[in-house]
Structure formats: C-alpha cells, structure tokens
Amino acid sequence: MKPDFAFPYRLYLVLSEADCRGRNPLWVAEEAILGGVDIIQLREKHASNDVFQKKATQLKAVTDRYGIPLIINDNLTVAMAVGAFGIHVGRQDIPPSEVRNAWPDCRLLGYSIERLAQLQHSETAVADCLGVSPIFRTATKTDTIAEWGITGIRQLRNLTGKPLIAIGRMNRENVADAIRAGADCVAVVSAICATDSPRTAATELKELINNAI
Ligand code: TZP
Ligand code: MG
C-alpha cells in the first residue's frame, strides 16, 4: 500500500547518552543534524523523570535551533513538559489512545510494531507512524521478539498505509535495501552514535537513503 501521507523524514536518530561513547550527546546530536538527520528521538531508559526532562530540555534547544522535530521515547510527562513534537511508544508503554487523549497537541505519535498480529490492533490504528522493530537483532536493544528482516518490511508495506520506520542494526550495508523494500524512514543508534564522526556517518547514510528512493 502507498503510505497514507508523504512522511517527510528519512533519517531518524535515536539518541541515548549511554550510546555516545562518553561524548556529549548534544554534540552528537548537532553533528548528526549537520550531517543530514531529519528527526531525533531522545531515549533514556534509566533516567529519572527529572533527569530525563533536563536532558530533553537541553536537546530541544539544539533541535529547535535547526528546526528538527524532537520525539521523546515512552515518557508522556517529559514529552508534554518540554513541548516535544511527538512521542514514540512500544507495546509495554502507555497505549497510543491514551497519548491522544492526554496530549491532543502531539504532532507525531510513533508506535513500535513487533509482530504481524499487532497490525490489526486498534492501538496501531491510532499511531501516525510505525517503528518496524527490529529489522535485525541488535546489541543496542536486547528485549526484542523476532527479526522482521528486509522481507518483513515488504510484507508490512503491502498491508498498511502507515509510514514505516525501519529500526534495528540498520547501517550503511542495509539502509538502501530497507528503503527499496518500502520503509519510509530509517532509524539508527550505533550507526551514528558509535562512530568517530557522527556527522560523516549521517551524511553517508542520508546519501545512501536518498539514492535508494
Ligand atoms: N528499537 C528497536 S531496535 C532499537 C530500538 C530502539 C535499537 C537500535 O539500535 P541500533 O544500534 O541502531 O541497532
Ligand atoms: Mg518503549
């Protein structure tokens, strides 16, 4: 199916301080933006609300400067408090319908899809876009169910008009395949955060994505 709307983001950075090799995540974010990242999600699994909100406020100052949307992972309180662009939730988090009720101003509501049956759930219908999670097993997130693989993207593309975000060990070797299979966007952690030059990494990924469209 064709996507319900033209998803305006191609390269999506998922940022956690722990994945930045001791470097300042704000520096990583800015370098990644300068390299071509279109959208950034802050994902801080172990931070308290206060710490998460402080990091989100600091990051929003950077993303605002470049007109880049900031998405908050899981935490609705933080997302609303900092005036984020949106939120990304998974099956163990606050359901998308509750996000909509509590936060009508949310401009991008992402939901992770981990198995095919989830496509039929009413909560999936509420989301603006779907994280296809994971495309490949990754050390960055180990509590995943099964790999979709590139064929999984193709399968989902045939079944839903929701914009699809491919995530999970996406890198220079496979981003073009994901786009050609029907992903609208590719999300990465390590392929940008764990490299010596996040800016160069983002530039290379963006070029590969653009050439595959
Ligand atoms: N959700 C599914 S896989 C993943 C998330 C947050 C981590 C992706 O990290 P990497 O390093 O790009 O494989
Ligand atoms: Mg989650």
TrEMBL record:
GO terms for molecular function: thiamine-phosphate diphosphorylase activity. Pathway: Cofactor biosynthesis; thiamine diphosphate biosynthesis; thiamine phosphate from 4-amino-2-methyl-5-diphosphomethylpyrimidine and 4-methyl-5-(2-phosphoethyl)-thiazole: step 1/1. Condenses 4-methyl-5-(beta-hydroxyethyl)thiazole monophosphate (THZ-P) and 2-methyl-4-amino-5-hydroxymethyl pyrimidine pyrophosphate (HMP-PP) to form thiamine monophosphate (TMP). This is Thiamine-phosphate synthase. NCBIfam families: thiE (TIGR00693). 2-[(2R,5Z)-2-carboxy-4-methylthiazol-5(2H)-ylidene]ethyl phosphate binds at residues 138-140, 189-190. It is an enzyme of class 2 (transferase). Residues 11-192 form the Thiamine phosphate synthase/TenI domain. It comes from Parapedobacter deserti. Its cofactor is Mg(2+). 4-amino-2-methyl-5-(diphosphooxymethyl)pyrimidine binds at residues 41-45, 73, 112, 141. Mg(2+) binds at residues 74, 93. Belongs to the thiamine-phosphate synthase family. Its EC number is 2.5.1.3.
